[in-house]
Amino acid sequence: MSKSNLSTEQRGFIEAITGLLVPSGMQPSTASLYGYLLLCPEPVSLDTIAAELSMAKSSASVAARMLEQYGLARRHGERGSKRVRYGVSERYSGFIAAQAALLGDIGRVIESRAAGVAQDATLKRLRYLGSFYGKMERTIVERIQDLADEAIRDGLIE
Q: Exposed, middle or buried, 82 (CB in 10 Å: 0-12/13-18/19+)?
């Protein structure tokens, strides 16, 4: 692998982004790649990603595909080639939307099973918690839509 061209400040930025995303459930290589792509003015190849982040090309590929699933990265094909490049997405809500869906799922499990596993004050608490998680999911989804509408209106995304 070749030596990275990242500055100390850029490495610090990537490490800070990684440190924030890993506790939220994102794999370290995926979080590092996201931090790196945020700094890239143009889409980059897997070879470049692997070299800059000192990771195996296969790890870079898995991380890039995961970022695609979260909606945080976008794949760019190269004409006349099977090679792909990755760049940061114009839409940033995928990971947050996935977290919101998880909250909703937890809320639905709690609400659907609370009566069978608890009673009295515990049942009341579980019903409140199930409702809370459901409301959080709806609030996050609605706010994501509001922000997307705003970005489209302001010409930031299409």
A: exposed
Extract the tokens encoding 102: 């998880």
Class of domain 8-88: mainly alpha
How is the chain split into domains, by residue range? 8-88, 94-153
Q: What is the pLDDT of residues 14-37, one digit of tens each?
A: 999 999 999 988 999 999 999 999
Spatial separation of the C-alpha atoms in residues 157 and 85, rounded to whole Å: 20
Within the chain, residue ranges assigned H as helices are 8-21, 28-39, 46-53, 57-70, 94-117, 120-153
Contact 88, 72 (CB under 8 A): yes
